Every structure is written in C-alpha cells, then in structure tokens.
Amino acid sequence: MNSPPTQPRRRVEVCLSAEERSQLKALAKQAGVSMSGYMKAACFGQSITIRVTDVAIATYRDLGRLSDVLNQLLPQAHGETHQLIEELLTLLHQIRAEIAGIRSTESPASRNPPSNL
Predict the structure, then answer these.
(1) How would you classify residue 89: left for phi > 0, otherwise alpha for psi between -120 and 50, otherwise beta?
(2) Can you give the residue ranges of every domain in the chain?
(3) CB-based burial of residue 99 (10 Å sphere; 0-12 exposed, 13-18 middle, 19+ buried)?
(4) pTM greater than the 0.85 cutoff
(5) Binned average pLDDT, 10 residues per bin, the chain of 117 residues
(6) Angle at the Cα of 30 (from 36 to 37), degrees rounded to 5?
C-alpha cells in the first residue's frame, strides 16, 4: 500500500540567547519532547504537559518549609546573618519557581505552579 504524499517541510530559524535556549531545552526535556516539538506545540496553542516527578514535588515542599523557618529567624538576625538569610530566601524562591516552571518572561495568567505541587 502506498502512503499518501507528505508536504515538504521547511525550516524556520529562531534566534535565542544562550539563556533562552537553555530554558527551552529544559522545558522540552521536562515535557519529554524535542525542542522543535515543544516550540511547535507552544506556537500552535497545543497543550504541553510537563512531567513533575515525586522528587520535584517533595523538594518544592521541603524548600517551602525551609523558607518558613528562615522567615521566622529573620527578625532576630542582625548584620551578616540577616543578609545571609535574605540571600538564602531569595535563592530558595528562585529554586521553587524553577521547580514550578515559573519564568519571568511568562504572562501573569501562566504563572500558576502545577496543581500537583
């Protein structure tokens, strides 16, 4: 049986910074698709399901607990200790955002972390 003829594919080039390419690669890996497949799905409004592992969920929760403890210590801390706790809180927030898939370039409507986190 002959298969139906397919339309020739044409390459489209997209310029990305090194950071944008790295983010695209990570998002595609999380979704279990190629970077090209991820971009096509995103461009054409297809849903992209990000797989969230049990380890990621546990890490997200544990980092939240750690943030709570550090926030409780912050009022009693002074000098370098206070500054260090603030830096740790900033870093923890960034890590949790990465786990949840939040990016600063996303629209406000897409900034909700996955429901299973």
Answers:
(1) alpha
(2) 15-51, 52-101
(3) buried
(4) no
(5) 74 92 89 90 86 84 95 94 95 90 44 47
(6) 15
